[in-house]
Amino acid sequence: MKLVEYPDAEMMMMDLADKLASELSSALRANDTASLAVPGGTTPGPIFDSLCAVDLDWARVQVMLTDERWVPETSERSNTRLLRERLLTDRAAAATYLPLYADAPTPEEKLAELAASLSPALPLTVALLGMGADMHTASIFPGADQLDLALQGSDRLVAMRAPGAPEPRITLSATVLNAAMSRHIVIVGGEKRAALERARHLSPQEAPVAAVLNGATVHWAEA
Ligand SMILES: O=C(O)[C@H](O)[C@@H](O)[C@H](O)[C@H](O)COP(=O)(O)O
């Protein structure tokens, strides 16, 4: 794992948007398409605000979430909603969005269909991940009901219920995340930095983020 420390979060978000854009752009020079998976939650909004305006052949880029909360787009908790408002706009509105949510009461009902729809985007070109203070990443939570499947299984997508998640989740598996050509983790603040340091010495069962650290670049700023 490589750790990059930034003087402040604003600078980090802008640098990271540049970095993601340049990785996508290099991939598009060599291939017809490129894919980008991004987290939801409260951290990545400013990255999306910069990235969406970048001059890139977005029509050849597939965008997806690393994980989604099983709620419709009308919900404040929908990560898709965040993406539509802040990433799939401006120049990036031309990208193809591959959703991880479909209208059904539970994720299990749509799991196979959603997993199949990801084929054109895999393996991922770039995966950006967040991390919670409980050391979860994507929706791979400590104590989740399908933790082993998400950490070690060969399935692309896993439906999850976890004590730390207020609604059912759907998440890319560690296998899919680790197959990405490039992997970045973005964290802000002292609490998450301390959690990251703890995770480096714990098993993925205790600290799921540990499953994706090898070969990743972690980007950190205090605030
Ligand atoms: O849907 C989600 O919640 C995310 O995809 C999740 O994995 C997120 O990255 C972490 O929970 C960190 O969340 P914050 O950035 O809000 O701290």
Automatic annotation (TrEMBL):
<dbReference type="Pfam" id="PF01182">
    <property type="entry name" value="Glucosamine_iso"/>
</dbReference>
<dbReference type="GO" id="GO:0017057">
    <property type="term" value="F:6-phosphogluconolactonase activity"/>
</dbReference>
<feature type="domain" description="Glucosamine/galactosamine-6-phosphate isomerase">
    <location>
        <begin position="7"/>
        <end position="220"/>
    </location>
</feature>
<keyword id="KW-0378">Hydrolase</keyword>
<dbReference type="GO" id="GO:0005975">
    <property type="term" value="P:carbohydrate metabolic process"/>
</dbReference>
<dbReference type="InterPro" id="IPR039104">
    <property type="entry name" value="6PGL"/>
</dbReference>
<dbReference type="InterPro" id="IPR005900">
    <property type="entry name" value="6-phosphogluconolactonase_DevB"/>
</dbReference>
<protein>
    <recommendedName>
        <fullName>6-phosphogluconolactonase</fullName>
        <ecNumber>3.1.1.31</ecNumber>
    </recommendedName>
</protein>
<comment type="function">
    <text>Hydrolysis of 6-phosphogluconolactone to 6-phosphogluconate.</text>
</comment>
<comment type="similarity">
    <text>Belongs to the glucosamine/galactosamine-6-phosphate isomerase family. 6-phosphogluconolactonase subfamily.</text>
</comment>
<dbReference type="InterPro" id="IPR006148">
    <property type="entry name" value="Glc/Gal-6P_isomerase"/>
</dbReference>
<comment type="pathway">
    <text>Carbohydrate degradation; pentose phosphate pathway; D-ribulose 5-phosphate from D-glucose 6-phosphate (oxidative stage): step 2/3.</text>
</comment>
<dbReference type="GO" id="GO:0006098">
    <property type="term" value="P:pentose-phosphate shunt"/>
</dbReference>
<dbReference type="InterPro" id="IPR037171">
    <property type="entry name" value="NagB/RpiA_transferase-like"/>
</dbReference>
